[in-house]
């Protein structure tokens, strides 16, 4: 075993960390109080700087203009960018575009790649992923009401989706819809590209989440597809293959998310320790001299370290053993890291006292928005049950004493 | 021991519960998306209904127009009203006015009562309480930078306060300021009434808290007192007696807060159980059929029951043994109930999945704003340390085996 | 509501506490290192003292020589006795005899009362309750392998039981066996009195529990019933009524257990605080000056207070509303109090450091043996699921917002 | 980063695992019910088998007959052996001898090595480490009452130690005693070899721990040193260097302990999953079909994985960066892994129900004895405070936003 990071990556990470500290974190007060839409011109400038530094799209294929980092290396990048909510966006590796890029790269036709993949990697357009439905449990993707029915050379799509993140301003959506209702249950749905200017593509609203509807990339769309007609050539991958592709997409996506969360943890941790050092309870008595605060710090340090190593090990397993073999590891980190993040943010907020509740630091934003981590991409409970069933099966018939 | 509630109170509580359900909860969507300021006319109508039902100002003295309920009975009222964030406001028993009314009633001069107490109880004006300072730990009130210096018949006040809740639109503030710097440390500060139109009373901003600065009653003010001059007749209670009065005020205030939190718990609990019953994971398989969700429900039920009984016992102790004797009980409930509330809200959010993150239910609001409960009126850590020191002292010299 | 304890009870409790401190706790070192069997003569003397003080059998009927305390009052007694593992035994209200006495009192024939109830209350004989089976889940009493088949005027009993606590030296067992396999599932088993000298009553072993098989009252028997023949007049209560009676018995039994656990909590708490006061980390720096230890103390104080009030409220509910109505409360306290106890004992052990692992204090005994509380009389998980199902049902069809 | 284990180590680990399963686990029932002393002849045979397999003393120097594995590789061995309480003993790498061997190897004179190190590595004699004192906090080694005063060519030792593990039957103790009371506080004590047959070496008792005093290697001695005279040539390392050496010894020792705990975790986990698969709640409904049990399994899997990676990373850090640099990592794992172990064992016990309380499985033994892990080698609280102080210092003066 070897826990060392390559020199090349250390260099890249050093550049990223410095950029985050100097260029992005100072933008946070604006991010916290203004509309994302209004920040876009300023963010565009930062993106240009990143491109000039040749750090753009670190995880995306070189042929389309990315850096082509492997899973493990991008995991480290994702950690560094996760320290600020605008990190991934400015470096061109933000969700949901990152996942869509992966799908288009693996399954897109040459035409689809030209039209959608290339400008997406370049950051010229944005996209969204439209799977979750209002009335159906995200945890059970077999139950899906949205349909795509063939009509001539087209599909006609009807359905009600939400949490189509970043739909506001997206050029297109990748929509999951039932195309083959008579297939075996995991083979009924397909992915279809739907340009957002298609008639019948109705962005009902940006869902108000934790007090804000947001805008642009920083929003979660509710979309009503009403007789939305697209050519069958917009089918992405094989018909009925939607779930299989989605599953594929989730693996690396979870690694990226989890490392982003680790980045958030380290940010919250730094703020917590700094506050403990500088907030005086009485002259000469910083908050950090109190043992309960010390316990917060040490427990957070241990949990972050534990969580971080688990994610890196899962990335390694996925690269060396493949998606299927690493499925358990990936499920484990999904709920474990989300849980650690919530605890660390909560402690950081507590250590900041009244200040922690305000938008004068990033912590209150993290507290309320990152709560979603225990829900999206499979709620804690779903992962726990699914991992356990897998483990129970592995042990069946074994003679254990 | 007898855990029964009197018939009279059962009747009152029944009326309140019905009013909350029919008149107030339907206003929540507006509360969640609009400015409080804009809701005021509508809320005024509800207040009139409450007055007609003779349920106005349940905890305030009869002679000023309240119901004069004792601490235990108002605790039960506070629970019922706590189910919605606008409950206490509509019934005329909202913080910080409730506490200010108590202080004015106990310590106000006849002139102060005429001018401030009477219209406050009637709900004609609002007030704020200006104690917490930006640069000093709220947990150590001995360290206070704000000063009130005598000049002729006046005080000249200088200082920087924040978390002066509801300052926006308040008629006056009760300001805590050091008047007697040479006194023993707990006898240095005094309470002084400062009308908000006094020159030098500068409301810098409504602090943005969890993404919103709020307005009117639903806001937290940052106030800069700059050579703010008020007559010495505005002194409230004895000079140097500020901390003693504040301490007195906190006891019953904590009971009210804690029972409001219990109300919040029961609301979140109801929503959680309802969701568990109605959200289908698969046909015929409600979320509530899952054992992890069942554990959420039972653990919440136990913790709410435990917390509720503790608060009622503390109210009883305060009434029968007095403030001083009940100090430990009151500190215990402060941190314990706040902790239970956070857990229950968190579980309710989790059970709602993606919906729980939205403002389509009240839960996301509770999740982010009630987080403050573990901080204001003494952070968890402060209470834990202070209770323990008291207990350790009680055991000193005892022969324990 | 009124949380006061009657003067009469305060007097009784004062006497008991003093007796426990002076007469019983000093016997613990012997209890921890010797066989229970060898302590019996000494314990008999203490029982005589208790009888002389007229505190014998506090919960048992006056007509048989007990004090006839009601549920709430005995709950307080049980708390006071719970401070030491030999408390209930010395006062004649120990499990499993206490439960058997209740059953015999409610369902015994005059002959059964003469023969078994009277000497049991007097402490002249002991008994055991033989329900749990090795191969079947205690949580699902419908699945039971032990049978009692009629043969002439007798029952012939066959089955394999364990956790028949105190079987070693018991005069008789109350055995649960299937008598009516064709009945509805909750009406198949009956309770039958089986004297321990009946041929076919085979005490296989005292089960080694946490390193000790124990002896006498302080043991848990594994019993093999092999063609064990008893007259049908030994049937206790109606045929097929075994589960219903067992259910009845469990309600008050859980109250007693829970209050015993509260007693254990207060004992562990006292030892913890005392240790924190007296163990010096450095000159003038007691362990209790450390904030993490202070947090242990305050959290324990809160949880014990919470748990205690819940049990008393459940006792009150059972007395005023009846067993059925109080079922939820009783299930709640079962798992909640057991959980609190484990946490408190664990903290007390931790505060004692290496000493806490030794048998030089009672804590290590409590740590290992009271772990069973989360298992017997229904494991945590069983109670949580069952309470939740009950609550979910209550909410069905309700319109909740 | 690379998480792969070398082929050589995989082979070794495979042999060890098989040996543990086939030869050692079957001896556990005897271990649980008999005296260790009586098992020694049988264990000696197993040791011979290990020696023949050339797996003896895996962590000890080749020149003395060990395998000379490095820290990381022995960590993996320690995990495999940790699955059974007798694993390390049978493979000749048990505490406290392992630590003493390290000290003797690094600091012993040629004579000391001949006389003590050689037979110790060979398993011909045993030893103990005599540092912890009854009256002084182990967490503050500066406060030590035991003294070694020079008299002629000898030291005369006086003091009261306990938790001198395995003193019963040890050939010698390494005793920590104050030799230089006027030195700076961390330079006052020295390590001195004291043969157990020295007059004045009084083994007062094997301390009864969790109900058992134990015997032989499996015991914890209380030793009174009364004018115990040994030649000054028995000084181990430099005079006054005792703490420094002890500190050195603790680093690798904690790695070994932590990996042993991971082994315990995996054992408890296996038993838990197996039980969940095989215990039927109703026909066709294994315990493992319940979601709460599934949560136990998944949470345990995540925590064990997290803990395991942390220990391996700490081992790597210690090897690549040195003891000092890895101090934080080692402190983190000490409390984190101990905590995970307690949780995993507790869940395993709970899943076993009544069986879990008995000595019919290894779980109850692990539950009660491994509780000590959160205490010895620095209590949780001590590590948490010390890590936090280190972190706080690292952040001092940093500009964090």
Work out the count of structural domains of chain A: 3
User: What do we call the CATH topology of the largest domain in chain A?
Assistant: Butyryl-CoA Dehydrogenase, subunit A, domain 3
Number of strands of chain A: 11
CATH superfamily of the largest domain in chain A: Butyryl-CoA Dehydrogenase, subunit A, domain 3
H-E string of chain A? HHHHHHHEEEEEEEEEHEEHHHHH
Largest interface: A-D, 58 and 58 residues
From the coordinates shown, what is the CATH architecture of the largest domain in chain A?
Answer: Up-down Bundle
* DSSP helix fraction of chain A: 40-55%
Task: Walk me through the topology.
The structure is a homotetramer of 401-residue chains.
Chain A: H1 7-24, H2 28-33, H3 36-52, H4 71-81, H5 87-90, H6 97-107, H7 110-122, E1 127-130, E2 147-151, E3 154-165, E4 172-178, E5 189-195, E6 201-206, E7 214-215, E8 218-231, E9 235-236, H8 242-278, E10 280-282, E11 285-286, H9 291-321, H10 327-352, H11 354-357, H12 363-369, H13 380-395
Parallel strand pairs in A: 1-4
Antiparallel strand pairs in A: 2-3, 3-8, 4-5, 5-9, 6-8, 7-8, 10-11
């Amino acid at each position: 075993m070897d826990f060392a990071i390559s020199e090349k990556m250390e260099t890249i990470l050093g550049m990223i960390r410095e950029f985050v500290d100097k260029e992005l974190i100072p933008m946070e007060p604006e991010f916290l109080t203004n509309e994302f839409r209004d920040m876009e011109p300023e963010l565009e400038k930062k993106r240009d700087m990143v491109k000039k530094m040749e750090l753009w799209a670190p995880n995306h294929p070189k042929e389309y203009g990315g850096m082509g980092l492997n899973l493990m290396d991008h995991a480290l990048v994702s950690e560094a960018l996760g320290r600020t909510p605008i990190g991934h966006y400015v470096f061109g590796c933000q969700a949901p575009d990152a996942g869509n890029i992966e799908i288009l790269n693996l399954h897109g036709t040459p035409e689809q790649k030209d039209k959608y993949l290339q400008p997406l990697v370049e950051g010229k357009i944005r996209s969204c992923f439209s799977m979750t439905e209002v009335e159906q449990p995200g945890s059970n993707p077999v139950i899906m009401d949205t349909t795509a029915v063939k009509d001539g050379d087209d599909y006609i799509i009807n359905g009600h989706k939400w949490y189509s993140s970043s739909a506001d301003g997206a050029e297109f959506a990748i929509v999951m819809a039932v195309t083959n209702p008579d297939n075996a249950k995991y083979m009924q749905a397909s992915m279809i590209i739907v340009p957002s200017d298609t008639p019948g593509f109705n962005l009902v609203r940006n869902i108000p989440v934790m007090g804000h509807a947001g805008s642009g990339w920083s929003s979660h769309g509710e979309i009503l597809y009403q007789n939305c007609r697209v050519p069958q050539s917009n089918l992405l991958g094989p018909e009925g293959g939607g779930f299989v592709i989605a599953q594929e997409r989730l693996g690396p996506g979870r690694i990226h998310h989890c490392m982003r969360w680790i980045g958030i943890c380290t940010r919250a941790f730094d703020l917590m320790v700094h506050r403990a050092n500088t907030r005086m309870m009485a002259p000469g008595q910083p908050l950090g001299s109190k043992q309960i605060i010390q316990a917060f710090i040490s427990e957070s340090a241990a949990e972050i370290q534990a969580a971080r190593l688990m994610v890196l090990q899962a990335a390694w397993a996925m690269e060396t053993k493949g998606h299927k073999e690493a499925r358990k590891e990936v499920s484990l980190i999904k709920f474990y890291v989300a849980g650690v993040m919530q605890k660390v943010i909560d402690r950081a907020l507590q250590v900041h006292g009244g200040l922690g509740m305000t938008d004068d630091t990033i912590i209150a934003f993290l507290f309320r928005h990152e709560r979603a981590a225990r829900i999206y991409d499979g709620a804690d409970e779903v992962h726990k049950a699914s991992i356990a069933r897998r483990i129970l099966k592995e042990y069946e018939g074994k003679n254990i004493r």
